[in-house]
Design a protein that fits this description.
There is one protein chain. By secondary structure, the chain is α/β, with parallel strands linked by helices. The protein is 38% helix and 13% strand. A 6-stranded mixed sheet has the order 15-14-13-16-17-18, with helices on both faces. The longest helix is centred in the first third of the chain and has 17 residues.
Length: 707
C-alpha cells in the first residue's frame, strides 16, 4: 500500500496510481496506450524510485491529463528523491484507444476530478502544503490575451494570488484569460468603486472580494448615477468565512472564565476604561481594561464590532431598525465601548504587530481585547505576525508568540466575514466564464482546506479539522448568528459612529527642512508643495470634538534655538482653528537641517501637558530626512528611553505615528525609515511609507484611520 505522505518517490507513485484508478484503466490498458511494457509501468508506480519524465508524461497523457501541470511535482520529487530511474526504450508513439469504454472512462474521470476537486501537490520547504492543482471545467491555455482582475481585501491577497497562479490561464470564448489579484482594504475599495474607479486607485477590478457582504449595499447606496449599474443585485457567494470575534490574550481571557464563561458586548461596555477592572480580578498589574478596534469606515472587523455593539445595546439579536440607532440609551452604550478604545486602525495588522512587539517584554501591558476575525487569531498564534499570510513589511512568519490569543465569541451573537466573490457588471463572456470557473476552483475541497491552514472556515461557515494544529479557536462552540442588518441601518451606524468615536488630542508636526524644496520628478512640484494639500486633508479629517495643534520643524528655527516652531496650539477643532491650521500649512517654507529626535521628544511632552484620558493622545510627524544634529538625542532607541523615562508610571501614553516621506531617508545607508519604525513601534503606533511623494494623499487617509 503506497503512502501519500511517504518519501517523495512513493508519494509521487501514489498520485500516479490514484490518477489511473480514477480513470478506470488497468496497467495492461495503459501499456497498450503508451508502448511501455506493463513491467515498466508497474516499476514506475512501485514507489521505490522516481520514474523518468518521458515515461511519466506518456502515462499522464494516456490518463487524459496534462503532463505540464504535473511537471512541478515531478521536479520537486526529483530534487528530494535521489536518482531517477533509467528511462526505458522510448515509445514509438502514443496510441489512444478509440473504443467507447476508454473514451467514457477518461471523460467520466475528468468529471469526477472537477466535481470532487481531486488534488495533487508537493510539500513545500516549511512543511505546509503549496498551492494545489485542481482539475477545472475550462481548458488551460499558455498565452494570456486578457486578465481578470480580482480586488481582494487585505487579509487574503497573497494566498489568493498564489491560488490564481496555481489556477493559471484558462480559455473561454476564444480568449486566454489569466487571473490577476490586487490588494485593497474593503472600505477603500467600496468608496473608489462607488465614486468611480480611477488610475490612482490601481487596476480596476472585474471581481471585488471585500471581507464581508455588508460592503456591497454600502457601495450601491453611495454610487453615482454613472457607477450604479456596476453593482450586481443579490447576495454574492462566499469564498470562505470567518466569524468576527473578540480576541484576548489567553491569560486575561482565562481570568474571566474562558472558555466556559460567556462574554459579550454588554460586558465590554461595562468594563470599558475601568482603571481598576483587572485589580478587581486579582491582577492589578494589568491596569485598566483596554480595547483595540479598527475603524469601521475601512475595516470589516471594525464594522462588525460596531454593529454587534448596536445589537447588544438594543437588546435584540435578530432585528435592528434605523430608528434604534437614534435611541439615547443605545448611543450611550455604544459610546462607552468606543471610548475604551486605545486607538483605532485601518486594519487589525496595526494591533497585532504592536502586540507582537509587546510580546517580547509584556504582551499584557498593551491591550486587553481586540475586535478581529477568528482567522487572525489562528494565524497570529501560528507565527504570522500580522494575523494573515502576508508580504507586508514586518508580517513574515516567525516563531509563535509567547502569549497566545484566544477567540471570544460574543454571547449576544456574531456576524461572519464571508469574503464574497462579487462579479461586477459589464464583464465580457470570456471573463465571466473564467470568473465562474475560478470560483469553482476556490470552492474545491483542496483549496478550502488550504484556506483552513490560515485560520478560515469553509464557504458554508463550517470549521475544517486540521488535526488540532490551530490554536485559540473553539471549533465546536455554539455560535449565535446575529440578524442581517438592513442597508439603511449599516449606513446610519457609520454616520453616527463619527459622533460616537473616541476623540483625538493630537499634535501634527511637518518637516520644513531645506530638503523639502527638492523637486519631485515628473510633477514639476517640490515635496513641500505636494505635501501641503495632503496635510490640509489630514486637518479636515478631524471633527469638532477633536483637539488638534500644528508645528513645523527643521533645526534651530524656534525660540531659544529650538528645532520647532509652534504654529497653532493644541485646542478644540472649531472653525477658527481649522482655518488657522489650513493657512499655516499653506504658508510653510523650507529652511535648515532636520532636528528630528529633539522635536519628537518635545512634541510628546506638549501632548502630555494637554493629556486627556478620554481621547487618543498622539503625535503625527512627517519627515523626508534623518536626524542630522550633532547635539541632543542621537538615536531612536535613546529617544524611546527618554520618552518612557518621563512617564515611568505609564499613565500618560502618547503614540507617535510617523510618515516616511520621499526616498532620501534611506539614501547612503542612512536607515531613516527604520529609525521612524523604531519610534512608532516603541510608542505603540505605526510608521507609514510615502517613499513616492505622489502617494502622500493616500497615505494620509491611512493615517487618519487611527483616529
Amino acid at each position: 500500500m503506497l503512502n501519500p505522505d511517504g518519501p517523495p518517490a512513493e508519494a509521487f507513485a501514489y498520485r500516479l496510481v490514484k490518477l489511473r484508478d480514477e480513470i478506470g484503466l488497468t496497467s495492461a490498458q495503459l501499456a497498450a496506450m503508451t508502448d511501455y511494457s506493463e513491467a515498466d509501468l508497474e516499476r514506475a508506480t512501485s514507489g521505490r524510485e522516481l520514474p523518468s519524465w518521458e515515461l511519466t508524461s506518456a502515462y499522464i497523457r494516456a490518463c487524459g491529463d496534462n503532463p505540464e501541470q504535473w511537471r512541478p511535482w515531478w521536479d520537486h520529487a526529483k530534487k528530494t528523491a535521489g536518482p531517477v530511474a533509467a528511462a526505458p526504450p522510448p515509445p514509438s508513439g502514443l496510441r489512444f484507444s478509440t473504443g467507447p469504454a476508454v473514451r467514457w472512462g477518461v471523460a467520466a474521470a475528468l468529471v469526477v476530478l472537477v466535481v470532487l476537486g481531486i488534488v495533487l501537490w508537493p510539500e513545500s520547504g516549511d512543511g505546509t502544503s503549496s498551492t494545489p492543482q485542481v482539475a477545472t471545467a475550462l481548458p488551460a491555455c499558455s498565452t494570456p490575451t486578457a486578465s481578470l482582475t480580482v480586488a481582494a481585501s487585505v487579509d487574503k491577497p497573497k494566498q489568493m494570488a498564489e491560488l490564481a497562479a496555481a489556477y493559471g490561464a484558462h480559455e473561454a470564448n476564444g480568449q486566454c484569460v489569466e487571473v490577476d489579484v490586487t490588494s485593497v482594504d474593503s472600505g477603500t475599495a467600496m468608496a473608489a468603486l462607488a465614486r468611480g474607479w480611477t488610475e490612482a486607485d490601481g487596476r480596476r477590478p472585474d471581481v471585488w472580494s471585500p471581507a464581508a457582504s455588508e460592503w456591497l449595499p454600502l457601495a450601491q447606496q453611495r454610487a453615482t448615477p454613472e457607477t450604479r449599474s456596476l453593482f450586481p443585485d443579490g447576495k454574492a457567494p462566499a469564498i470562505m468565512t470567518s466569524p468576527s470575534i473578540i480576541a484576548m490574550p489567553e491569560p486575561m481571557a482565562r481570568a474571566l472564565g474562558w472558555p466556559e464563561a460567556g462574554i459579550g458586548w454588554e460586558d465590554l461596555a461595562t468594563w470599558a476604561g475601568d482603571p481598576h477592572f483587572w485589580a478587581s480580578k486579582g491582577h492589578p498589574e494589568w491596569g485598566a481594561f483596554k480595547l483595540g478596534k479598527t475603524n469601521p469606515t475601512y475595516s470589516t472587523s471594525g464594522l462588525h464590532a460596531t454593529l454587534g455593539a448596536l445589537f447588544s445595546a438594543n437588546g435584540s439579536i435578530r432585528e435592528v431598525r434605523p430608528e434604534d440607532v437614534d435611541k439615547d440609551a443605545v448611543a450611550q452604550r455604544m459610546k462607552a465601548i468606543e471610548h475604551s478604545v486605545v486607538h483605532y486602525g485601518k486594519t487589525t495588522l496595526t494591533f497585532l504587530s504592536n502586540m507582537r512587539q509587546a510580546d517580547a517584554e509584556d504582551a499584557l501591558s498593551y491591550i486587553s481585547a481586540v475586535t478581529m476575525s477568528e482567522n487572525s487569531v489562528i494565524a497570529y498564534n501560528a507565527g504570522y505576525t500580522c494575523g494573515s499570510y502576508s508580504d507586508d513589511e514586518g508580517c513574515s512568519k516567525t516563531e509563535p508568540p509567547k502569549t497566545k490569543l484566544v477567540a471570544v465569541y460574543p454571547e449576544e451573537g456574531v456576524l461572519h466575514s464571508d469574503h464574497p466573490f462579487i462579479k461586477l457588471n459589464g464583464l465580457d463572456r470570456a471573463k465571466s466564464a473564467v470568473a465562474d470557473d475560478f470560483l469553482s476552483y476556490l470552492h474545491s475541497d483542496a483549496v478550502q482546506r488550504q484556506f483552513a491552514e490560515y485560520g478560515f472556515r469553509d464557504h458554508q461557515q463550517k470549521p475544517i479539522d486540521l488535526g488540532g494544529s490551530a490554536y485559540g479557536w473553539l471549533p465546536d462552540a455554539e455560535i449565535k448568528p446575529l440578524g442581517t442588518p438592513t442597508n439603511e441601518v449599516v449606513a446610519k451606524v457609520l454616520a453616527s459612529w463619527v459622533k460616537l468615536r473616541k476623540p483625538t488630542n493630537v499634535l501634527v508636526c511637518i518637516d520644513s527642512s531645506l530638503s523639502m524644496e527638492e523637486k519631485v520628478p515628473g510633477t514639476g512640484a517640490t515635496k513641500l508643495e505636494l505635501v501641503k494639500p495632503a496635510m490640509r486633508q489630514l486637518a479636515d479629517g478631524f471633527t469638532d470634538s477633536d483637539r488638534v495643534g500644528l508645528w513645523k520643524f527643521s533645526s534651530g528655527i524656534g525660540e531659544g534655538g529650538a528645532d520647532f516652531v509652534p504654529l497653532v496650539p493644541i485646542g478644540p477643532m472649531d472653525g477658527t482653528r481649522r482655518q488657522d491650521i489650513a493657512a499655516n500649512i499653506d504658508g510653510l517654507t523650507a529652511d535648515g537641517a532636520t532636528g528630528l529626535y529633539d522635536t519628537i521628544d518635545r512634541a510628546v511632552e506638549v501632548v502630555r501637558g494637554t493629556y486627556d484620558p478620554n481621547s487618543i493622545n498622539a503625535v503625527v510627524l512627517l519627515t523626508d530626512g534623518v536626524n542630522d544634529k550633532a547635539r541632543g538625542i542621537q538615536a531612536p532607541t535613546e529617544l524611546i528611553d527618554v520618552i518612557r523615562g518621563k512617564d515611568a508610571s505609564g499613565d500618560k501614553p502618547v503614540r507617535v505615528f510617523t510618515i516616511a516621506y520621499g526616498s532620501e531617508l534611506d539614501a547612503n545607508n542612512k536607515a531613516g525609515a527604520e529609525a521612524l519604525a523604531t519610534i512608532s513601534k516603541g510608542t505603540g503606533a505605526k510608521k507609514y511609507d510615502a517613499k513616492d511623494p505622489t502617494t502622500i494623499t493616500n497615505v494620509i487617509i491611512d493615517v487618519l484611520s487611527n483616529f
